[in-house]
Amino acid sequence: MTSYHTRKTILGAMAAALLAGTANPAFAESAFNRIATFPVAANLPADMDQATETSSEIIAATADGNMLVYSDSPLGAVGFIDISDAQNPQAAGVVKLEGEPTSVVVSGSKALAGINTSQSYTAPSGRLAVIDIAGREAEMTCELAGQPDSLALSKDRQFLAVAIENERDEDLNDGALPQLPAGVLQVFAMQDGAPDCDSVKTVELTGLAEVGADDPEPEFVDFNDSNEIVVSLQENNHFAVVSAESGEIVSHFPAGKTSAENVDLKDDGAILFTETMPETAREPDAVKWLDNDRFVAANEGDYQGGSRGFTIFSKNGDVLFDSGSDLEHQAALAGHYPDKRSDAKGAEPEGLEVAEIGGETYIFVALERASLVAVYRDTGETPEFVQVLPSGVGPEGLVAVPERNLLVTANETDLGEDGAARSHIMIYELQDGEAAYPTIVSEMKDGQPIGWGALSGLSADPATDGKLYAINDSFYANQPAIFTVDATSKPARITGKMVVTRNGNPAQKLDLEGIVADGKGGFWLASEGNTAKLTPHALLHVDADGEIGEEIALPAALISQEKRFGMEGVTIVGEGDDQMLVMAIQREWNDDAEGLVKLVTYKPSDESWAAVHYPLDKPDAGWVGLSEITAHDGKLYIVERDNQIGDAARIKRLFAVELEGFEPAELGGELPVVEKTLVRDLLPDMKAATNEYVVDKIEGFAIDRAGTAYFVTDNDGVDDSSGETIFVNLGPINAVN
User: Fold this and answer.
1) Is 481 within 8 Å of 498 (Cβ atoms)?
2) Which of 64, 95, 118, 286 has its CA 20 to 30 A from that of 715?
3) What pLDDT does 28 receive?
4) Which three-class secondary structure state does DSSP give residue 198?
């Protein structure tokens, strides 16, 4: 056994060095950019219900880099994707297997899959399936010592390592260890691209860890060039390094604990990086060798820990680097911080890949709950942050194809049952030029990132070109905020955050969906109500400090016809006593005919209300509604969208209504129907910004003082969402249509 050393070389100067480069790509001349997405459901057999749940978890690539192979646990299959043309991946079928595939690797012309066949936690079982890739046929199997998790193939293709986890029942005794039978590591010799079943060596891992020594649960395995296997024992917070040739344990040591400053530890509807995480067990999931002497671990955590970062260890147990709070901060700066996980494991680093691409060695860290991949460059000492990559929901598996400058992520979460995103494979390429994502970021202030997300409205500063204001919605119920945006920067930059207050405290019971600058330093805000949640529909007037000075409830003639989908934008037309606020109601209320929604007006001078009807386009699926309204140069610009994503999205459109002849009528009677003119189909702009991965909600649209038009999407606070926020500069409004 090798002694454990706690050489915390980053918790001072290294951390400062990391944060100094936060949110700025380290290499402006090249960047990874997404070039394609592939919905895993597209690989379902034609005779199967296309709504069937699918998932891409662990992913591998053939030696020529033209075929991807992934495990699909809910489908009970291994899937194939042809990426001969990486920008146009094609479904290449699945091979159904008896049991649950947990991992997959490629050995020459064969795919090797670990299959869980366990009948119970106390009677785990599994097998190793060998699949002919060309023939799409399972050829043989090897019996395993229990339930497999991770597989790894040695670089020289001589050995296969299988982590036999024999996972515990998390509902039994609060998931506490021990829960026998114990897990083991199994090592197979390879022959003609397939494992020799009779050659298996079983490496016992009991008696090593300080936590649950009798019940090791090996999670992830990887080989270095010396055919040494590093295996993470996640629940045991421990590592072992094993010789594949002899089956002997070379070293083992605890993963240890670490702390982090300026983190958010509360699920409270507010992003506040003001707390310190105490010494917490790392509980590593994925591990990858950086070279023969160093490996990196993603500290996802389980039932006792999760340090929200990644750590580089020597194979003797020295801590060479720990990322501290940097991963959390990188996620927050890009708007991907998952506040609902603040009291658990935060962004939750889970998957890893290490690869030399374009002459540099990169570390790719998949953040499961942030739906993000953080990219660092290995320097041999302190890793250098490069960029973040937008992923699908729940990235888990990653594979690099270095000879093609590609990175591929497998995103396991399938939300098709809820009408949301399906599981996706995403492909990125190292390209000359700058990073396409993120399109909007925030800044660091006093060692803390400006936390943001769920942007639900946009307005221009009336005095400054390129200066905008955005708001967040009720996802951040305890931190309703107005954000200052520098739209002249690329990416656009959130430079300030002002909390909306009532009597000096963060205002409660708001769902901010519309904002417009009042021209006097303050703002009018539209709050969408929901009677079931005791949230009123209201107009709010706030001063330059964000304090609510006036709250105006909707009149009885409107409230009596209320539905949940209320005001989604507010704008100002006219001046003096003729000044009028115009609000867009998202969907039909009880007194609206199908396909007609209200544009409601309010005159502060005489407190009068009126409305017109606006005709909606008809959806192919789901519903269509309004999500923003902006007055400019004699017109009302209105965003109309469906609630569909991906390939199903059809309506993301900008319309105009002439203010000349705009004559709202008294509420309660027949309302005039305005005419609308299509200004621009925004779907191509969304596809261009995301390389075809269409997110749902355009929630903000503004035209600045110079006449430049912008829109922004709402990422739902990274809750059952990919977390992507798309900010687009459309150029001069006069040239938009």
Assistant:
1) yes
2) 286
3) 52
4) helix
Tell me 648's DSSP state. Answer: G
Tracing tokens 């090897």 back to the chain, one arrives at: 142
| Mode of pairing for the β-strands spanning 492-499 and 440-442 | parallel
Q: How many CB atoms lie within 10 A of CB 272?
A: 17
Helix (H/G/I), strand (E/B), else coil: 32: strand
- CA-CA distance, 270 to 717, in Å (whole number)? 11
pLDDT band at 6, cuts 50/70/90? very low
Is the Cα torsion angle 51, 650, 659, 731 positive or negative in sign? positive
Q: How far apart are CA 102 and CA 109, in angstroms?
A: 20
Query: DSSP class of residue 177?
Result: S
Q: Is the CB of residue 387 less than 8 Å from the CB of residue 380?
A: no
Euclidean distance between CA atoms 295 and 228, whole angstroms: 11
- In this predicted model, what pLDDT tens digit does every residue of 690-726 receive, in sequence order? 988 899 899 999 999 999 999 999 999 999 999 999 9
Mean pLDDT of 479-495: 98
Cβ-based neighbour number of residue 196 at 10 Å? 13
Closest CA to 537 of 512, 502, 516: 512
CB-based contact 336:388 (threshold 8 Å): yes
Nearest to 229 by CA among 194, 166, 186, 182: 186
Cis peptide bond prior to 178, omega within 30° of 0: yes
- What Cα–Cα distance (Å) separates residue 164 from each residue in 101, 146, 200, 369? 13, 6, 13, 26
Token pair listed for 250: 């070379």
Q: What is the pLDDT of residue 701?
A: 98
Residue 348 half-sphere exposure toward CB, CA atoms < 13 A: 20
Q: Which amino acid is at 727?
A: F
Tokens linked to 447: 């060692």
Bond from prior residue into 349 cis (ω within 30 degrees of 0): no
- Mean pLDDT to the nearest integer, 53-64: 97
Q: In whole angstroms, what separates CA 658 from the centre of its chain?
A: 39
What's the alpha-carbon Rg for the chain, to the nearest Å? 27
C-alpha 665/C-alpha 672 separation (Å) is: 7
User: Residue 440 pLDDT more than 90?
Assistant: yes
**Is the bond preceding 338 in cis, omega lying within 30 degrees of 0?**
no
Encoded amino acid at 661, one letter: G
Contact predicate 295/255, CB 8 Å? no
* Residue with more model confidence, 22 or 668: 668
What whole-number distance in Å separates Cα of residue 641 and Cα of residue 152? 46
**pLDDT beyond 60 at 259:** yes
Nearest to 375 by CA among 358, 352, 396, 393: 352
Give me the sign of the Cα torsion angle 714, 717, 723, 724.
Answer: positive
Mean pLDDT, range 190-211, rounded to an integer: 97
Burial 705-737 (b: 16+ CB within 10 A, else e): eebbbbbbbbbbbbeebbbbbbbbbbeebeebe
CA dist 672 and 613 (Å) reads: 6
Q: What tokens does 4 get?
A: 């454990």
Tell me the per-residue pLDDT of 324-345, one tens digit each, with 9 for 90 and over: 999 999 999 999 999 999 999 9
| DSSP state letter for 57 | -
